[in-house]
Amino acid sequence: MKSITIEGRISSGEGVGSQFVKLPWVEKQFEEKLGFIPYSGTLNIRLSHGVDISKLKNAEKRIRINSLKGLLGGWCFKALIMKRLWGAIVVPDVQEYPDDLLEILAPVNLRKTLGLKDGMEIEITVWLE
């Protein structure tokens, strides 16, 4: 199974991810396609300098989250967070979305469960096929 390891630092977001995750039709897709109902928020990761996530764009295991009613969808990838918890990374279909930002979903609050704070380093293994 092909995977990549992504490293970055935790950063606070603007709360937009949590609003999206709470939508019933989005939550249903995450449950059906990822196998879990995500905690109602995302963990934002600023990628380390030089981290290349271009392999994600054509990966076989990308999971489509379809849009509804003019809202944007995106892609997800199953991921292992800090070699301890299963979750997913989300790549939204947003044209202005920063190249160095990833959003992480999990069935639990990752900050509380793993004792994470802004600025801490984090490692995520993402499955590509």
- List SSEs in N-to-C order: EHHEEEEEHE
**What's the CATH architecture?**
Beta Barrel
Structural class: alpha+beta
CATH topology: Elongation Factor Tu (Ef-tu), domain 3
Task: Count the domains.
Answer: 1
Rg over CA atoms, rounded to whole Å, is 13 Å
What's the total count of β strands? 7
Distance between the termini: 6 Å
Shape: globular
Percent of residues in beta strands: 25-35%
Range of helix content: 10-25%
Q: Which CATH top level class fits?
A: Mainly Beta
Enumerate the strands of the largest sheet in spatial order, edge to edge or round the barrel.
Answer: 1-2-6-5-4-7
Write out the CATH superfamily name.
Riboflavin kinase-like
Quaternary structure of the protein: single chain
Count every helix, treating DSSP H or I runs of 4 or more residues as helices.
3
Whole-number average pLDDT? 83
Query: Which sheet architecture does the biggest sheet show?
Result: 6 strands, antiparallel, barrel
Q: Low-confidence stretches at least 5 residues in length (pLDDT < 50)? A: none
